[in-house]
């Protein structure tokens, strides 16, 4: 034999090819059109190879990645490299076998060939260990075609093998999908992979992570926490699932068995442990969840195809012995192999299932103690033996697995009744499977009858899928058992109590209808039909319905002694009926027989109002019932519904009743007791329609509540009650006796009376002569009548006047003016609290007030005259002087008699004693005054300066001038010419030596010559003041600057230089100059004191005291040059050092700050005005008062401007005896007098209160108040203020 060739090589190769074909040919032929199970398994075979690659190595885990696109499926893992033997086995479809390999998952079956569902050509890239060195390689398997093509493909596979020095690190299987079935297989494999991969990772800890890229949709699964519960010997594992960026979690609870097993050790001749996992999946709400499409059996990987083997939990065991196709467990046959005497494959599987039972109970206990829901799934697979046909022993499975598992489950609370979980043995289990037309309806009845001691409907439906029948420990109930239970209750009350049914009638009606439709014979066999008394009876021939007979007729039948309810179905049974009905006509005939004449039965019938008839008929008998309920109250109860009572049942009853009613009312003679106005209205409303003879009876009340006949009364056309009261109390005339009661509405009299119909009565009364012994009584009654009539007011004429102005007099509208007079009357009589009323406008009503208003004028006039001045009147009525003037202007439209017209000193005078201010002249005089056009003339008023000058000269012209707010009402004028002449004459008379030192005369001269003459031209002075004009220079020298004053000026000029005299002209030294010029201190006295104190007149810091020329006082001149009077104390004060010190300090403060309140000084006047502005802003900004009014505040362009604390005010002195008026939200009025000083708080500050202010304080009555406000440091940054309440008499006010 040639050594270079072996004669057997050729034959050996042929034989090897035939063996290869024998191994793969048939299976590959099947996989050209693979079934779905093969397709689903294909991916798991690759997972198996990845997991098995690290078996028996130091590697603990493997990562898997799968990439799928339209035509490619790539599976990758980073397990251990190939060796030549494992690669050879893969390529040539050869395996040494995994029978004794405890770490391998697959031992039999088609293995890797199944992956050819995806493609017959597979490109493999990985690493291989050769000669102890790891290299990279790639090879492509070609397994397409038949025999010769397969052998050719094997050769191509060998030829494609390539090795590389560099390592790949990952093993990759790439399948090119070329057919539609390849792609379908890929989709089935991927979906099954997604459904089960989390469970596979649970059972295969060696798989570290999974990543699936399915056409760009990436699924990744990673392990999170695994928690061990020592008390229950179980685990809780959580996996993070990210499916196409949608994060979620998979949660499992499970327990393990991993224990040495002698039977397996003997079988495999190697030490082996029995390994089992028992698991249950939970959702995110802690509910048990089951994937119906996923198998319950796992041998590390899912036993795809075993889905029909349903179990209450997932069981995994690498020691399972499945069939060759890994689709079922081997359970048929002996537990022991007869040949070897060792445990058989079925014996291994049975051993595992028996061991699972204890694991199941432990999980069950944990689930019940942990509040996990959906426990009905724990009975899954226990209802019956699974429909497994191959390798299965039904009897063994039933006796040794199903029954023990049921025994375990029945001990634990797994049934949800809507409140809690209870055991199967403690619940009534409704049996509703396919027996009744409506399963949920049947469940509802059973549930109510057994008082809800049943599962919820959803729970019962769920358990019906898995619960087993025929177990004596479980109480199964059906409809007939429920019917028997209902019969045992005997009546509806007992049913409600025992079954806790809210609406028991609706329920029994539905229940009977259900029984009639599904089990009709039960109605005749059992007493479950309620009659009208609510008692249960059987269905009989005499049992009839009464649905068409109204309840009120049935009630009436029972009241008059006709039995009805015993033999009729209860009316609350709406759906259920017996088929027999009694009619309404039959029932009415029973009533009619008992109402032939007047009796108690008629009253009983009258209780029923026939609401089913027309409206008029219903109203008629409703009124009859109400009337009878009052008159026959002992026989009448509550009104009842008479719907269904026919008209003929009432015929002949009403006339008898009406006659009786009229007779009973007439007996009472007047309204009272049971015969109220409301009742009489009901009677008349009924009688006027249905009984015309009512007019013959005295049953209609007048306005004094006496019953009269119809034709003796008239209609009251809105005559006010005030008017009626006036006639009774003042005229002794009661018109109510002839007026129908105003609350009588059903009938209308023939005659009508209006308020103007009584004009003659009023005229006769007010024109009655006021003489004789009852003269004063008559006058008082007329005043009283006028007070009544003023309170009867016409309504507002909204079309012809501003309805918001209550004091707008209109000469064309007497009714409007009557309203104005009423408002004035209320305002003047501030305590007026009597009621008033409005009447409709009617020109005929003028006579109501025509004769009475003169008494109103007189009363108002007397009040005005009693107050003398506007100030007192405004205080009296509680309004500002501005508002008071408004009321006066309004009132004089009604009358101007008496002292009611104010002069310009705000004093009330007769109009005949007053003159108009100024006159209409052709020539223009004082350009600074106001002008009003009157034809071609101009109104020339008297300047305020001339009025002031006139007063200083002894003639107060303002006393004779009408107030400026009033029109020119007077018959006479005092013209500008007249007042100028008057002043000129008075100047002439007063210009005598004895008046040269008279201060009033000096001021008059100064104001006229130095002030007023500067405002007019020389021609006007000569024209209007001829005497004064000729003597003005003499007056200046003799009065304003007399001999002594001129002497002092000469002395000043001789003592000081011109520069020093300029310094004396400053404001700071003005006080000294004034004192010198007024001859109160001489220059010599100043110089002497200056020399003694070693001070200079021009110093700004020294203080000097000078005695005046009369020796009875002194002047204190300090750096601010304030002046004060030197006070000489009596000896008793001087000798008391403490008292002397007190008075000295007090008077120092008086002299220091006293001028702050002297408004003759412009500086001090500003101090006062600023204080008022400060208090005004303080109160206004507090928002706590309804109204805040500063009396000096004005909108006039001729007003004085005050700037204070960043704000600008226009002010005019209005002469009020208070500065600020405040009105609170509850109507209280507060009058505030403000006193201000630049002095700081803490000093003794004097202030003045005038007599007028004290008078106003006395006239202010509670709840109104007169308040004094003190403001310190008014010019500073933060003034301080205080409020003092002033009262006239503490005892009286207390």
Automatic annotation (TrEMBL):
InterPro entries: HATPase_C_sf, NOV_C
Domain Protein NO VEIN C-terminal, first and last residues per copy: 1212-1281
Residues spanning the signal sequence: none
Pfam families: NOV_C
Name of the protein this chain belongs to: Protein NO VEIN C-terminal domain-containing protein
């Amino acid at each position: 034999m040639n050594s270079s060739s072996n004669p057997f090589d050729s034959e050996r190769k042929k034989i090897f090819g035939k063996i290869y074909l024998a191994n793969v040919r048939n299976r590959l032929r099947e996989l050209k059109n693979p079934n779905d199970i093969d397709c689903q398994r294909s991916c798991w075979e690759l997972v198996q190879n990845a997991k098995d690659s690290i078996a028996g190595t130091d590697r603990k885990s493997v990562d898997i990645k799968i990439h799928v696109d339209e035509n490619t499926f790539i599976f990758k893992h980073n397990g251990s490299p190939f060796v030549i033997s494992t690669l050879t086995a893969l390529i040539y479809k050869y395996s040494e076998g995994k029978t004794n390999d405890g770490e391998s998952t697959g031992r039999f079956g088609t293995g890797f060939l199944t992956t050819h569902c995806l493609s017959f050509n597979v490109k493999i890239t990985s690493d291989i260990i050769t000669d102890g060195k790891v290299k990279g390689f790639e090879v492509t398997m070609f397994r397409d075609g038949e025999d010769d093509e397969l052998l050719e493909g094997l050769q191509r596979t060998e030829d494609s093998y390539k090795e590389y020095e560099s390592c790949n690190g990952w093993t990759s299987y790439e399948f090119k999908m070329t057919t539609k079935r390849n792609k379908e297989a890929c989709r089935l494999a991927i979906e099954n992979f997604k459904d089960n991969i989390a469970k596979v990772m649970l059972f295969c800890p060696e798989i570290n992570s999974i990543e699936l890229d399915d056409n760009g949709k990436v699924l990744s699964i990673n392990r999170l926490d695994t928690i061990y519960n020592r008390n229950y010997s179980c685990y809780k594992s959580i996996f993070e699932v990210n499916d196409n960026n949608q994060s979620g979690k998979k949660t499992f609870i499970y327990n393990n068995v991993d224990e040495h097993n002698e039977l397996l050790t003997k079988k495999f001749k190697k030490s082996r442990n029995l390994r089992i996992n028992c698991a249950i999946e939970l959702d995110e709400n802690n509910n048990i969840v089951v994937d119906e499409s996923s198998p319950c059996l796992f041998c590390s990987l899912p036993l795809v195809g075993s889905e029909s083997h349903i179990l209450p939990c997932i069981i995994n065991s690498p020691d399972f012995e499945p069939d060759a196709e890994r689709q079922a467990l081997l359970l048929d046959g002996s537990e022991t192999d007869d040949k070897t005497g060792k445990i058989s494959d079925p014996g291994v599987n049975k051993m595992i299932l028996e061991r699972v039972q204890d694991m199941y109970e432990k999980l069950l206990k944990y689930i019940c103690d942990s509040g996990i829901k959906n426990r009905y799934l724990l009975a899954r697979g226990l209802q019956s033996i699974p429909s497994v046909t191959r390798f299965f022993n039904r009897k063994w499975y039933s006796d040794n697995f199903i029954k023990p598992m049921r025994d375990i489950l029945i001990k634990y609370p797994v049934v949800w009744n809507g409140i809690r979980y209870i055991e199967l043995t403690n619940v009534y289990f409704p049996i509703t499977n396919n027996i009744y037309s409506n399963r949920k309806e049947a469940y509802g009845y059973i549930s109510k009858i057994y008082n809800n001691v049943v599962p919820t409907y959803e729970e019962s439906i769920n358990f019906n899928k898995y619960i087993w029948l025929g177990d004596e420990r479980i109480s199964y109930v059906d409809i007939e058992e429920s019917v028997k239970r209902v019969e045992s209750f005997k009546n509806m009350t007992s049913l409600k109590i025992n079954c806790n049914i809210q609406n028991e009638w609706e329920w029994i009606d539905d229940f009977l209808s259900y029984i009639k439709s599904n089990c009709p014979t039960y109605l005749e066999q059992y007493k479950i039909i309620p009659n009208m008394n609510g008692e249960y009876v059987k269905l009989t021939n005499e049992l009839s319905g009464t649905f068409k007979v109204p309840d009120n007729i049935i009630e009436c039948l029972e009241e008059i002694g006709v039995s009805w309810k015993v033999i009729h179905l209860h009316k609350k049974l709406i759906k259920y009926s017996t088929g027999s009905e009694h009619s309404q006509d039959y029932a009415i005939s029973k009533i009619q027989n008992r109402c032939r004449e007047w009796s108690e039965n008629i009253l009983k019938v009258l209780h029923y109002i026939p609401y089913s008839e027309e409206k008029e008929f219903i109203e008629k008998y409703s009124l009859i019932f109400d009337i009878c309920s009052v008159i026959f109250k002992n026989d009448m109860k509550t009104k009842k519904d008479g719907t269904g009572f026919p008209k003929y049942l009432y015929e002949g009853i009403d006339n008898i009743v009406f006659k009786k009613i009229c007779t009973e009312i007439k007996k009472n003679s007047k309204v009272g007791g049971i015969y109220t106005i409301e009742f009489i209205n009901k009677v008349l409303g009924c009688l006027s329609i249905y009984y015309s003879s009512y007019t013959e009876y005295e049953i209609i009340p007048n306005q004094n509540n006496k019953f009269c006949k119809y034709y003796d009364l008239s209609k009251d056309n809105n005559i006010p009650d005030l008017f009626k009261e006036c006639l009774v109390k003042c005229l002794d005339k009661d018109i109510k006796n002839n007026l129908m009661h105003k609350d009588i509405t059903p009938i209308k009299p023939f005659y009508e009376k209006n308020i103007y119909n009584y004009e003659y009565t009023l005229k006769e009364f007010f024109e009655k002569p006021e003489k004789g012994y009852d003269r004063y009584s008559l006058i008082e009654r007329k005043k009283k009548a006028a007070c009544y009539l003023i309170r009867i007011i016409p309504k507002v004429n909204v079309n012809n006047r501003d309805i918001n102005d209550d004091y707008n007099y209109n000469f064309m509208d007497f009714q409007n003016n009557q309203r104005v007079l009423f408002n004035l009357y209320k305002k003047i009589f501030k305590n007026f609290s009597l009621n008033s009323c409005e009447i409709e406008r009617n020109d005929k009503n003028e006579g109501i007030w025509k004769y009475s208003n003169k008494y109103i004028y007189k009363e108002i006039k007397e009040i005005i005259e009693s107050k003398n001045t506007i100030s007192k009147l405004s205080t009296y009525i509680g309004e500002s002087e501005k508002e008071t003037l408004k009321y006066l202007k309004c009132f004089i439209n009604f009358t101007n008699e008496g002292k009611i017209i104010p002069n310009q000193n705000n004093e009330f005078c007769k109009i005949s004693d007053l003159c108009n201010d100024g006159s209409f002249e052709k020539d223009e005089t004082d350009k600074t005054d106001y002008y009003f056009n009157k034809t071609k003339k101009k109104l020339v008023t008297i300047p305020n300066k001339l009025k002031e000058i006139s007063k200083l000269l002894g003639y107060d012209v303002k006393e004779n001038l009408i107030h400026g707010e009033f029109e020119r009402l007077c018959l006479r004028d005092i013209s500008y010419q007249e007042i100028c002449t008057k002043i000129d004459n008075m100047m002439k008379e007063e210009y005598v030596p004895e008046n040269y030192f008279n201060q009033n005369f000096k001021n008059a001269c100064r104001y006229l010559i130095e002030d007023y003459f500067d405002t007019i031209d020389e021609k006007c002075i000569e024209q209007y003041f001829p005497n004064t004009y000729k003597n003005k220079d003499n007056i200046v020298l003799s009065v304003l600057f007399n001999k002594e004053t001129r002497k002092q000026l000469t002395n000043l000029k001789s003592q000081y230089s011109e520069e020093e005299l300029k310094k004396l002209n400053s404001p700071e030294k003005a006080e000294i100059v004034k004192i010198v010029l007024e001859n109160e201190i001489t220059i010599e006295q100043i110089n002497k004191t200056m020399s003694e104190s070693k001070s200079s007149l021009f110093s700004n810091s020294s203080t000097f005291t000078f005695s005046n020329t009369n020796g009875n006082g002194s002047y204190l001149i300090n750096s601010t040059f304030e002046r004060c009077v030197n006070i000489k104390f009596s000896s008793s004060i001087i000798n008391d050092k403490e008292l002397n010190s007190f008075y000295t300090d007090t008077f120092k403060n008086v002299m220091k700050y006293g001028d702050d309140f002297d408004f003759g000084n412009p500086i001090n006047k500003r101090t006062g005005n600023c204080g008022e502005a400060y208090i005004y802003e303080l109160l206004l900004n507090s928002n706590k008062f309804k109204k805040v009014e500063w009396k000096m505040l004005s909108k006039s362009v001729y007003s004085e401007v005050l700037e204070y604390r960043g704000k600008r005010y226009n002010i005019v002195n209005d002469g009020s005896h208070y500065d600020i008026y405040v009105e609170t939200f509850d109507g209280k009025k507060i009058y505030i007098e403000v006193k201000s000083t630049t002095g700081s708080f803490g000093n003794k500050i004097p202030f003045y209160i005038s007599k007028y202010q004290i008078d106003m304080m006395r006239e202010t009555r509670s709840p109104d108040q007169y308040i004094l406000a003190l403001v310190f440091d008014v010019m500073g940054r933060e003034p301080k203020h205080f409020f003092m309440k002033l009262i006239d008499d503490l005892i009286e006010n207390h």
